[in-house]
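Can't paste images in this forum, so I'm doing it all in text. The chain is below; anyone willing to post the predicted structure tokens underneath?
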Amino acid sequence: MKRNLSLSALGVAATIALAGCGSDTEPAAPVDESSATTQETTTSTGSGTEVSPEHNNADVMFAQMMIPHHQQAVEMSDMMLAKDAISPEVIDLATQIKDAQGPEIDTMTTWLEAWDRSAMPDGGMEGHDMDSMGGMNGMMDEDQMAALESAEGDEAAKMFLKSMTEHHNGAVEMAQEEIDNGENTEAIALAEIIVETQQAEIQEMEALLAEL
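Text version of the structure:
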């Protein structure tokens, strides 16, 4: 995202322009930088990343809930990548999911930092462990994750594809809610990307399941 010119840069530019217009006997008057104005459109985080500060509760909830959702998808993908006898197509899909959602986790974490909001919903995660979140927005519970980890071969691939399809459907629902109710343009843009990419991956997973 391009930043507006800083006040100091504007002041320098104004001084140069005025100096060029002044005569040899009448030096240009000094520029009062405090009179220059610019619209601040970004907030810098501790990492130096710039984030638009405009947001509402829907944006915050989108990030807070999508982060653990993505984290589980990455964990599921890692399980598949660690297994033997998995088809190259499923391995490619797991890699694709991990490569996309890992950076998105970092992006959403940066937003919450910039907005001075916790990475967890208000009140913490009490009552929202993996078991209680299982089934919510396609999330898997601990038993389902353990079953996926212990499965091998085509059984593991089928379990992964079925579970990730449900997982993606949940992410699409969450993203659509952000599109409908969010305010932050960056969050809405990411939600639109999630809808587009994960719907395409759902179609891919359905095709792979039909071949197993």
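The radius of gyration is 24 Å. Helices lie at 7-21, 57-81, 88-114, 130-133, 142-150, 153-181, 185-211.
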